[in-house]
Amino acid sequence: MILMSFSNKAATDAVNHTLQDTILYPDEHHFKNLQQLTFGGDNAEAYFSADSKYLIFQRTNPKEGLYCDQEFVGKVPASGEKFEYTRVSSGKGRTTCGFFTKDGMHIIYASTYLGADTCPPVPDRKKYGNKYIWPIYASFDIFMADTDGKNIKRLTDSPGYDAEGTLSPDGTQMVFTSVRDGDLELYLMNMKTLKVKRVTNHLGYDGGAWFSPDGTKLLWRASTPKTPEEIKEYKDFLAENLVAPTNMELWIANADGSNAHQITSFGQANWAPAYLPDSKRIIFASNQEYKRGYPFNLYTINEDGTNLQKISRDKGFDAFPMFSPDGKKIVFCSNRNNGGTHDTNIFIADWVE
After folding, report:
1. Is the Cβ–Cβ distance between 139 and 121 less than 8 Å?
2. What whole-number distance in Å separates Cα of residue 205 and Cα of residue 209?
3. What is the mean pLDDT of the chain?
4. Greatest CA separation found in the chain?
5. Is the pTM of this model over 0.70?
6. Residue 177: beta bridge partners?
């Protein structure tokens, strides 16, 4: 969800800091039968279908003519088998945030293709003192299509950024991020009527939201500028369709957006959160231990902010965790075993408590 640049920076730094490639690190006790699914390019946001049998993910690889993210779908392979996947987006523009509908017959994803067939320009960070920034492309809208990519239907049609959509477990609602009211807020869409309701109301970026497996709660990442200088910088960047996401914390709320509250205060970038199958604990990516800004590792935490546990150990980048709906497997993306390149690949494992 507009997050690939995190992996690129971490991967670049990891070239000089990783002593050797490995699939599984010591102390990664929760991963069993860990398997690498992709090999090469930037692969991210791999999310399961409701029956736990398929993955949708976004992929960039200039060597294959993929110059910005496109959506792919593949069947989860049996242990040791090759992961086969097929592009399901048009190849036009840039895509992000793929997700399966509950019936397994459709996918949703965001795309810029109505703005242009080509990849949207990447912002020049030199203009902003090399500050870490993400583009919030105004041409992003959310679409639904068949799982083969055909019969595309537009779901959002408002000026500015609409993306980062995920669906409730019962398939009736989509939570997504939009700038339609002047700030980056969360909204709920009724999937039958397409009626939209705003659910967050504080200044700052709210995004990357998920429903809990039991459908009763929302979980997301948020930045909260507080000082006059922070507020000015946030608004100035937003006016240029940019956001600087170097300080984000985790928030939760009831599924209707009520009782929204912050649950972490670690500082730096805490993001890519998802619930564990018990709907009580949360897994997320963070660089909280490292003032230099990397590595990013996976952690679990109770939803009241207690019992922080470190899960992964890569020296560059581990992120985008998701549990299979049946609770048996975890999928995540990592710089591990990339031969010292900038590649981010998809890994899957049996989850061990």
Report:
1. no
2. 11
3. 94
4. 55
5. yes
6. 163, 186
- Taken in order 275, 281, 287, 288, is the CA torsion positive or negative? positive
User: Is the per-residue pLDDT at 7 higher than 60?
Assistant: no
Six token digits for residue 260 = 């929204």
Tokens of 67: 């110059």
Strand order in the sheet with 249-254: 206-211, 217-222, 249-254, 261-262
CA distance 206 to 325: 25
Location of structure tokens 């293709």: 113
3-class secondary-structure state, position 211: strand
185 burial (CB, 10 Å; 0-12 / 13-18 / 19+) is buried
End-to-end alpha carbon distance in the chain: 28
**Helix, strand or coil for residue 351?**
strand
- What pLDDT is recorded for position 132? 87
Q: Dump the DSSP string for 55-82.
A: EEEEEEEGGGTEEEEEEEEEEPPPTTS-
Q: Which residue has the tokens 């969800």?
A: 1
